[in-house]
């Protein structure tokens, strides 16, 4: 992935704009969960399409504290991972779960992001949904990968504040190589200048 071709990173204000817009959409809870799976968990389109309720629920059938993403729901042998649930995302999942449990045929193996007929959504449908969303809201240069790239960049900026390292970000992203994670991170030349003064 060349630097010039990377998906745009969004600010917190832009993320809030998207959430506000989705509040008026046909399926606001589901749609906001889809958005936050990208921005607050760093999931790929394939992973958003594949994640099931069993991956986010505990033994009591309630929303737990993490996403237990399996390898087959991701890209393969090393991409499955455990991602702590962001509080905002957890709250939306709890509300969506209550909504889904009212319907006949609900089980924990159902996919969280489903179609109008309750079927699994394809990764391409997720990609198309994000593309249409950004275009409608008027945010240029974005794709379904923008949320993932925003998540990885923000995690990299803040990981040292909680005693972690870039390797922890790699694990959250589900990358086999640290070099891959580094390509996702947007650099900040102002930060370069400030840190040099602290050395």
Description:
It is a single chain. The chain is 49% helix and 4% strand. The protein contains nine helices and two strands; from the N terminus they run αααββαααααα. It has a two-stranded antiparallel sheet. The longest helix has 15 residues, at 87-101. The relative contact order is 0.16.
Measured as a percent range, the helix fraction is: 40-55%
Radius of gyration: 17 Å
Overall morphology: globular
**What sequence of helices (H) and strands (E) makes up the elements?**
HHHEEHHHHHH
- Regions with little confidence, pLDDT below 50 for 5+ residues: none
Question: Helical stretch count?
Answer: 9
Largest sheet: 2 strands, antiparallel
Q: What structural class should be given to the helix and strand makeup? A: mainly alpha
Strand content: under 5%
CATH top level class name of the domain at 10-148: Mainly Alpha
CATH superfamily of the domain at 10-148: Intergrase catalytic core
The CATH topology of the domain at 10-148, please? hpI Integrase, Chain A
